[in-house]
Amino acid sequence: MLLKRYFNKPEGCEPRRDTRGRLVNPPPLDRIEVLHTGVSADQHISTRVVDAGLAEGWISIGQGKLTLHAKPEALVFTIKRLPGYYCCHCGAALADAGQVLADGSTKGLAHVREEHPNATSPDPGNPSGYERINHYDLVLDAKQHKRYKADPKQAALMMSEARRQLRAKGGA
Ligand SMILES: [Zn+2]
Questions:
Q1: How many Å apart are CA 110 and CA 102, to the nearest integer?
Q2: Most C-beta atoms within 10 A of its C-beta, which of 27, 29, 90, 109?
């Protein structure tokens, strides 16, 4: 998904940065435009981005939906999974999976041991059999995905252009 943020730059406002190069007087956000929504309706949006969107008012969450208040229209996603722990075997949400037990294992491991004994984790990236996700697992409204989806060829071109720009910046 590719979004572009537009800011209202007040007349005569000069950007000021702190010693670490962070902008200390960011201008107010005017609008967010949807350039495309990726090649798949399934989207991950990081907790950090969602938190920023909620604080700045361009994301809202309610009734199982996450709405991104963009132009030309708000994008509506169904929330499949919230950030947190999940079992790789059965997909169950394991809210307190990180809690350490008296024997040094965790509640997540206890779930896997009890519910899926002797089973190998279906996810090689998470051999413990449970995972922690730090993003919102979303699926975009099907009609909107059809309207805004990226052409895979175009998306590849945009990615390589973005990488080229990054390299150019790094070298400057
Ligand atoms: Zn399970």
A1: 11
A2: 109
